[in-house]
């Protein structure tokens, strides 16, 4: 399924001049054009690790709650035998075909989940403070920083939260049915700030 922005999120896009955009305190970006692939397997198998690395340029992280990025791909740890691969939508079919081919004979699967979730990116000096209003995860940089991710409850929504390379920048992967609710919650939590909501593609590597 093509990862287009749901029509019910389009109403949140901010209509602002370049000056107003530059003056925003808090940015919310609705990331589109993404393919979501769920990977399952046992990394004790070197064949599995090598297969994924040869196709994506990335080795699925063994360390809990970490993600890796390279080129136009990112892989997030979801569990000891499960990961989420984000890629450009146009690459999804090709990657799925290659992964499924090399997974033959291995206890591993690759499943297309594109369209099942929405990815939001938030950025701003008070981003962590806003997130803290709805979750119990310690977001202090000494405990949650670049390359970290966690599956959390955020304002009653289940979210995969990731800390990006830039300071004050996070990605949130949320089920499509909760995307509008979560976006409304973010706007309400940041109501005292100058907020800019925009649509863009994923900045890979971060």
Topology:
Blueprint: H1 7-10, H2 18-22, E1 26-32, E2 34-40, H3 46-56, E3 67-70, E4 73-79, E5 82-88, H4 92-102, E6 109-112, E7 117-123, H5 127-132, E8 149-154, E9 157-163, E10 169-175, H6 179-189, E11 195-201
Parallel strand pairs: 1-11
Antiparallel strand pairs: 1-7, 2-5, 2-6, 3-4, 4-5, 7-10, 8-9, 9-10
Helix pairs in contact: 3-4
Q: Could you please describe the fold and organization of this structure?
A:
The chain has 206 residues and is α+β, with helices and mostly antiparallel strands. It has 6 helices and 11 strands. It has helices spanning 7-10, 18-22, 46-56, 92-102, 127-132, 179-189, and strands at 26-32, 34-40, 67-70, 73-79, 82-88, 109-112, 117-123, 149-154, 157-163, 169-175, 195-201. It has a 6-stranded mixed sheet, with helices on one face. Strand 9 and strand 10 form a beta hairpin. Helix 3 packs antiparallel against helix 4.
Concise structural overview:
This protein has 206 residues and is α+β, with helices and mostly antiparallel strands.
